Amino acid sequence: MSQYWSPAIKALTPYVPGEQPRERVIKLNTNENPYPPAPGVGQALRDYATDHLRLYPDPTSAALRATLAKTFSIESQQVFVGNGSDEVLALAFQAFFCHGAPLDVPTITYSFYPVYANLYNVELRPHSLNASWEVDIEALGSASERSGVIFANPNAPTGHAHSLESIEKLLKRVTDRVVLVDEAYVDFGAESAIALIDRYPNLLVTGTFSKSRSLAGLRLGYAVGSAELIDGLQRVKDSFNSYPVDSLASLVGIAALNDEAHFDACRERVITTRERTRQRLEALGFEVLPSKANFVLAQHPDYAGAQLFAGLRERGILVRHFNTPELNNFLRITIGTDDEMDSLLEALQVICG
Ligand code: PMP
């Protein structure tokens, strides 16, 4: 602890991502995609080295924003891009949630939200999940004063997703502040709230190229919403670095967006493997929460989460175990290839045998 640190930094518990393995293991702990990105990405990388690397990027990221706008059938001025959706979320906290009132958030959700709340001095008002481990969307925004509402849909690490209908009910109630829907996992079977941005100027939807587009290493994320919200994000961003993303991220992101067939094939494979994994985990006695994401959250009535985590780790399989009272018994398992899931299930059969 340093005397030079501000109080918010002293109080900060940094987000600890899943561990990065040193030797070859089956890595099912950080929700990456097991399949390679679109084939066009390779060509984009080669073009980049020869044609773009020596030049400054376009400070408006116009081509990438236009391609995202076309993908979502919206306008470019409704699109913001940043270095991973984590950066976009950090900018959203600074632009929209520092009103001096609590920010409504589910108790069990993406663990970066409390980190940003600490960092930007935003008080959180956490709402418990319901008995089925679903975000209690009725409770979010029900108090009279708030700085905004944030939740992930599908939620992490539970995987449950609300329908557009229930998100719209929330938007009808909360009109005075920003409602941020984090759609990092939406492409694995949930409905996107992007369909609502034209009707709700306070709705901001964030997304990422890290999961369904297999580009976690690139650090590319986006937000879509009304032009006034995008302008708010741009103001905060400009005060740090006027280039929203570098030219490599733009070029590769465009190549990924332009291959819808590859995108659909990969996400369908992940969804099929997820459902197969779910059935086989249930056959081993696990309770598996229904998931619309590229992971499942599962617990076994007879074995502690920590014990299963350690047993898998010994066998070279990394999954995620959360050391919190509510989630202590669960494992969050990323959906890998069918072969990787077979290895996981065989190992669990031995451990639980
Ligand atoms: N939101 C949620 C709910 C996530 O789980 C993650 C990934 N850990 C992110 C956002 C951030 O994704 P990225 O920064 O890779 O775009």
UniProtKB/TrEMBL annotation:
It comes from the Bacteria. It catalyses: L-histidinol phosphate + 2-oxoglutarate = 3-(imidazol-4-yl)-2-oxopropyl phosphate + L-glutamate. Pathway: Amino-acid biosynthesis; L-histidine biosynthesis; L-histidine from 5-phospho-alpha-D-ribose 1-diphosphate: step 7/9. The modification N6-(pyridoxal phosphate)lysine is found at K211. Its cofactor is pyridoxal 5'-phosphate. Transmembrane segments: none annotated. InterPro entries: Aminotrans_II_pyridoxalP_BS (IPR001917), Aminotransferase_I/II_large (IPR004839), HisP_aminotrans (IPR005861), HistidinolP_aminotransfase (IPR050106), PyrdxlP-dep_Trfase (IPR015424), PyrdxlP-dep_Trfase_major (IPR015421), PyrdxlP-dep_Trfase_small (IPR015422). GO terms for biological process: L-histidine biosynthetic process. Residues 24-348 form the Aminotransferase class I/classII large domain. It is an enzyme of class 2 (transferase). Its EC number is 2.6.1.9. SUPFAM superfamilies: PLP-dependent transferases. GO terms for molecular function: histidinol-phosphate transaminase activity; pyridoxal phosphate binding. Keywords: Amino-acid biosynthesis, Aminotransferase, Histidine biosynthesis, Pyridoxal phosphate, Transferase. NCBIfam families: hisC. Homodimer. Belongs to the class-II pyridoxal-phosphate-dependent aminotransferase family. Histidinol-phosphate aminotransferase subfamily. This is Histidinol-phosphate aminotransferase. The gene is hisC.
